[in-house]
Known about the structure:
By secondary structure, the protein is of the alpha/beta class. The protein has helices at 16-22, 28-38, 40-43, 56-62, 75-85, 124-131, 150-163, 185-190, 210-218, 221-224, 228-241, and strands spanning 47-50, 68-71, 91-94, 107-113, 132-147, 194-209, 245-259.
Amino acid sequence: MTVNARVPARVFGEVAEDFDRVRLAYPVALVDDVLNYSRLADSGRRALEVGAGTGKATRAFAARGVPVVAVEPDEAMAAVLARHIAHLRDVHIVQSAFEEYQPEEGFGLLYCADAWHWTQPEVRWRLAAQALTAGGVLALFWNNDRIDDPTLRQAMLDVLAEIAPTIVINDAPLEPARLLTEWPGNELAERPEFEDLVGRIYPSRRTVTGADYVTHMSTRSQCRMLAEPIRERLFAALTEDFDDVVPLAIDTVLYLARRKPEPR
Ligand SMILES: C[S@@+](CC[C@H](N)C(=O)[O-])C[C@H]1O[C@@H](n2cnc3c(N)ncnc32)[C@H](O)[C@@H]1O
């Protein structure tokens, strides 16, 4: 008998359209920095994207003329992505987990937006190095958002503590000095295949509606994994608290590293 158990890495497709509508995009300056650091256009190579989801980063890179092979395992996420990129000739979707994907070419850039933590720790660095040509660039990034209003933030934490105490909110402001000692900087710094490690933070602010904030919460893996009655109670309580707008402070974190040449 086959049991299709839900796993935290693969629940996003349950809410693919919501995810696409409310998840935050990535800063234009970050895309510029990745392309300047990688000099991808000079290499004549394509970029590999890991965990493309509905294509928030795919579209940002494709808009800059980057040819992309976008790997995404979830059918529903890949379907939204396919709709978005239907008019683009140079974006190719592969429905697969990164660990099962067999590259048929060397890539000049491997980028991954908010998905590297879902890949398998035992193999991901080796597979990334194998997918890149010597001098090719690894770029890992994601958005860290926190509610920029102490009363509203505390109201959310109180609701979580009462209804879903297993949910962990890691929204402390990031200190640039710790970028290279925290995951994934600490692991990447130890990898013999990579060099020239850089960590950067792009701070920004945004205000969203309370309803969109609650929908955003509902796209988080930790919330999706709650038992349904608890999830419903949680969202009913959050909807009561977030009846207006929610100011967000966003730190977008980027790590860049270069693939070393193979030892001779
Ligand atoms: C939080 S979403 C991020 C999606 C998109 N990159 C973005 O920034 O909006 C994480 C994505 O990683 C995908 N994913 C999970 N495990 C994966 C794996 N082993 N290999 C590749 N992608 C994976 C999920 O299906 C999901 O689409």
